[in-house]
Amino acid sequence: MTFWNRRKKQQLLYILVDIFSSLLVWGSFLIFRWLVYDGRVFSVDSVLIPMFNFYTPLIAYPIGCLIIYYLSGYYLRPLRKPYLRELRRTFISALIISFGAFFIFIIDDPVTQYERYITSLIVLFVLQFIGSYIPRLLVTYISHKFDHDEPRVYTIHSMNEVEQFEQAHQLEPYDEVILDFKSKSKENDIYTLINRLYPCNVEISVVPSLYDMLTGAAMIDDVSDQPLIRISEHKMSDTGLCIKRAFDVVVSAMMLILLSPLYLILSLLVWYSSKGPVFYKQERIGLHGLPFNIIKFRTMCVHAEEATPQLSADDDPRITKVGKWMRKYRLDELPQFWNILRGEMSIVGPRPERRYFINQIEEKAPYYCMIYKIRPGLTSWGPIKVGYTDTLDKMIRRLNYDIVYIENMSIRLDIKIMFHTIGVIFNGKGK
């Protein structure tokens, strides 16, 4: 079983355990209130068990728990989970869940003694923490102790060993590749190798030099491990990554629904302006260096690019009159919310490019592969600072800004970029 299959299996196991434990916690909490305050489940009187809130939380409480657990980043790295990190995240999640449930389901209950509110909150927190932590700890302990299907690691010492790895990886997939070059290698060779490894869907690490260790670039996951530079990882926290993805899903779904009248109007304008399909699909390179089809409103005449790919320019004769107006206000990009909802893109991230232009960029900037570690975006710092990239030099400038964004990713930075993007749209700076 490959690393990614084991990961999905372990994720599913944690989710099932959390659903069961949340139902058990809420049921135990209701029994506590019923016994301690001498109440009846279907009668209110002076007790804290509400008649109208009995059945609803049986569905809402587990769903709410799963949402909090997901946003905490608990399910993102299900394998080889550190015990201390599991304890800390479970404690914080239990605190948030108990306070949330208290203010949603309990605060409106009839009450004669207000100290019962505090007692109920404390009991719910204790039940939630213990009830969720013990099953999780058991799953983690079993996976640590009895899972002998360890991650398969392949070490590459030179460029000559790449083809050997690719052949071995096809027969039995590896989980991680460590680049340990004993001799000094050209920087371009290392980036070329990383480019070839990204589509293999493996974790990529590099044995650091002395300079890397002194500057803090190397990371140690365990005291028994050697220091490594995790090429395929980025610096955003697990919680931040999950919040970012949840934000993408919610916002893209809302935009597709709320802007549906605008989608209809733009579709009619495109259809009326020139013959051909309303939407335009184009292959771009995204997460892990894998291709996907980006969706746009068509702004050019049909068959505008049948031979060699070309960049658009000012007064480009291929662009229709309606298309020029749509490009000015970035309206042609709106269908990409569907790409975001599908998980191919994010709202904020490096703009995806075509393979033809990537090959040209890599000749001058071989580190282009570093943007493959995150989903490409609808907007990012690069497009804001550089604008439309109609030359190769602008593409490289945009890439440099995107690399800086990746090294400083945060929810706060994403929000700033989105506000700047709104300003660019309203000012009509697109083309």
Question: Which keywords apply here?
Answer:
8 strands, four-stranded mixed sheet, globular, alpha/beta, 431 residues, 15 helices, two-stranded antiparallel ribbon
Derived structural class: alpha/beta
Compute the separation of the termini in Å: 49 Å
Gross geometry: globular
Order of helices and strands: HHHHEHEHEHEHHEEHHEHEHHH
Main sheet? 4 strands, mixed
How would you characterize the overall build of this protein?
The protein has 15 helices and 8 strands. A 4-stranded mixed sheet has the order 1-2-3-4, with no helix packed on it. Strands 5-6 form a two-stranded antiparallel sheet. The model is unreliable at 40-52 (pLDDT under 50). It has 431 residues and is an alpha/beta fold. The chain is globular. It is 53% helix and 8% strand. α1 runs antiparallel to α4 (115-146) and α3 runs antiparallel to α4.
Question: Briefly, what is this?
Answer:
With 431 residues, the protein is of the alpha/beta class. The protein has 15 helices and 8 strands. The strands form 3 sheets. It has a 4-stranded mixed β-sheet, with no helix packed on it.
SSE topology:
Blueprint: H1 3-36, H2 56-71, H3 83-106, H4 115-146, E1 153-156, H5 162-171, E2 176-179, H6 187-197, E3 203-206, H7 210-214, E4 229-230, H8 238-258, H9 260-273, E5 279-285, E6 291-297, H10 321-328, H11 336-341, E7 346-348, H12 355-364, E8 377-379, H13 381-386, H14 392-407, H15 411-427
Parallel strand pairs: 1-2, 2-3, 7-8
Antiparallel strand pairs: 3-4, 5-6
Helix pairs in contact: 1-2, 1-4, 2-3, 3-4
